[in-house]
Design a protein that fits this description.
about 475 residues, two-stranded antiparallel sheet, 18 helices, 2 strands
Length: about 475
């Protein structure tokens, strides 16, 4: 009997050790995810020129190396955590073999890899391909980590902390107080370089900040307290400041993305989803949706009118459209896009090589219409449309695979919340950010920048973690 009790005690002690190691692993993974999402948009290099003046050139490259290094740190930690729990290995194997998103991502990567063989300059092509490989690893790791709701919130709070640092810096510089370590340009600079990427970053992250506000609102209503009220007010002030900075940056693409993602708010605010039903829009709710959309329109119009530069940009867009239609409205993008279409026509299947658009464009800068931005003083380096640039670099099949992968995330949003959602409707911030990112890809180049490219894979991983295995097939 004594021997049996001793043996049971040993098993009990071993069990507690294993449980404690799992708990420690979970906390450590949450910490790593928080640090990754908090620091990624803030990393950049600056220095002093020989004459003592500061120079500000490396805004994207440091983020690229930081993200790549941290991805493999996360991957190594994930592999170690899997080794502690042998039962998770079959789950990982099943995920890799049965997830439709993994299959589409693998095909997309294979097509991009093949396009590198067609590249005129292969070193930058394979460097970018390595970046996509690392991001594919990140997608798998996050998709598995995000099956736990607390790890999702670690990422969200990391985004919110980065926004908390990012926004005051931009506002300070906007009012004319030069931040010593940022680019001394007209308008708000940022740790992403200048005003357009800064505004795009805010538009992408803002839905998750609003989601955090809603969470803390529910927490405060359940159990009121001074600390909870302080956090709630802090979230609200941060969101208002972020919206203000977005309009201070007067990026038309960011304003349009913000307008599009605001269309998700009626569903969040009015709570149109009914129990036992998958339908969000029902005829009896259309009037309330139209009323909410009208109020949003008035609010957004007021925001545009409050900030002079945004008002000028929006008015200029309407004037240009009235004068010359879409061609005049697109400005220089019209020439980039039209000449890129000629590039796609000549290389429809394999493209010109990943990362080789800027090296091939000199052969096409006047193939459809002479590009005014391509001369001895300036040379355009990006197509300002990621869909066209992907088709030009990697071929139309690569574009179709990406659209299938991206579109699948919207398809999965039609389902109700699942067990992994921990009772919270993660569809709302996902839908808003996916819409914003889609708009930005159409008019700008987020997939050509390290941070926003990582954010794209974060959205894919978050959507897949929510859907698999309950909804994914």
């Amino acid at each position: 009997m004594t021997r049996a009790l001793k043996k049971n005690s040993q098993y009990s002690k071993a069990g507690r050790q294993i449980f404690n190691s799992f708990a420690l692993t979970k906390k450590f993974s949450e910490g790593l995810i928080f640090i990754f999402f908090a620091l990624s948009p803030l990393i950049f290099f600056s220095g002093l020129a020989p004459d003592g003046h500061p120079y500000f050139t490396l805004y994207d490259v440091p983020k690229f190396y930081f993200i790549i290094a941290f991805i493999f740190l996360l991957a190594g930690f994930y592999c170690w955590s899997v080794s502690l729990e042998p039962g998770s290995i079959p789950v990982l194997r099943k995920f890799l073999l049965s997830s439709s998103s993994v299959k589409l991502l693998s095909l997309w990567f294979a097509v991009m890899a093949f396009s590198c063989l067609q590249a005129r300059l292969k070193p930058p092509a394979f460097m970018l391909l390595f970046g996509y490989f690392a991001l594919s690893v990140l997608y798998i790791v996050l998709a598995r980590f995000f099956s736990c709701s607390s790890r999702r919130w670690a990422a969200i709070y990391g985004l919110i902390v980065s926004l908390l640092i990012f926004v005051p810096i931009g506002i300070v510089q906007f009012v004319g107080l030069q931040v010593p370590f940022l680019l001394p340009i007209l308008g708000p600079a940022s740790t992403l370089g200048y005003r357009n990427p800064a505004a795009h970053y805010i538009a992408m992250v803002l839905p998750f900040a609003v989601f955090g506000l809603c969470r803390h609102w529910r927490m405060w209503r359940e159990k009121r307290g001074v600390v909870k009220l302080f956090l709630l007010v802090g979230f609200l002030l941060l969101i208002l400041a972020s919206v203000a900075l977005l309009f201070m940056n007067y990026s038309r693409t960011a304003i349009l993305a913000f307008l599009v993602e605001a269309l998700v708010l009626p569903f969040a605010w009015l709570g149109l989803r009914r129990k036992g039903s998958d339908r969000v829009l029902q005829p009896r709710n259309w009037g309330r949706v139209l009323l909410c959309a009208l109020l949003l329109g008035v609010l957004l119009s007021s925001l545009v009118m409050v900030f002079p530069e945004s008002r000028k940009r929006v008015k200029s867009s309407f004037d240009k459209f009235a004068q010359g239609g879409v061609v005049q409205l697109l400005e220089f993008r019209y020439y980039h896009w039209a000449n890129t279409m000629m590039m796609i026509r000549d290389n429809p299947v394999f493209g010109v090589g990943l990362g080789n658009w800027r090296f091939t464009y000199p052969l096409y800068y006047k193939s459809y219409a002479k590009d005014p931005l391509f001369n001895y003083q300036t040379q355009v380096r990006k197509a300002h449309n990621d869909y066209l640039q992907l088709a030009a670099e990697c071929g139309i099949p690569a574009l179709l695979l990406f659209l299938l992968l991206w579109g699948r995330q919207f398809y999965l949003l039609r389902y109700e919340t699942v067990e992994n959602d921990a009772g919270e409707d993660w569809r709302l911030p996902l839908a808003a950010s996916l819409l914003a990112f889609s708009v930005i890809m159409f008019f700008s180049f987020p997939m050509q920048m390290a941070y926003s490219r990582m954010f794209c894979f974060f959205l894919l991983a978050l959507g897949e973690a929510r859907a698999w295995p309950a909804l994914s097939s």
